[in-house]
Amino acid sequence: MTIWIVETGVFPTGLAALEQAVIEAGFEFRGLSETDELRGRYGQWSPEDRVVFRGSFEAAESFSRACRDANPGVIGNPEEFRCSAYYPKLEGWRLNETYRLL
Q1: For the domain that residue 66 is a member of, what is the CATH number?
Q2: Dihedral of CA 40/42/45/48: which sign?
């Protein structure tokens, strides 16, 4: 079975269409509120299930840490969204010349 865990209240549009598409494709849709995410309520699944997560950066990072057995889990690499990962690559495009990464 494929399970989509989607953080609600994050993206301004498209949630209903995504939910409908997921269900029509025969997959399970689980809406996840901010309160659920903060309490680590992601639900249960078996090792054979495919689990896809869609949500904010913070929730994705939390999900990645808490649910390491989810496959494929979070699509993307939360580490690549950190300023320390991309800011040095933008050297020629920055408006300010000096900066300090802490």
Answers
A1: 3.40.50
A2: negative
Number of domains observed in the structure of the chain: 1
Residue type, 24: E
| 82, part of any domain | no
Q: Which candidate, 71, 5, 16, places its Cα nearest to that of 40? A: 5
pLDDT digits (tens, 9 = 90+) for 23-78: 999 999 998 887 676 566 777 888 888 988 888 888 888 888 778 778 877 776 76
| Burial label, 64 (beta-carbon count in 10 A; 0-12, 13-18, 19+) | middle
- Which has more pLDDT, 39 or 19? 19
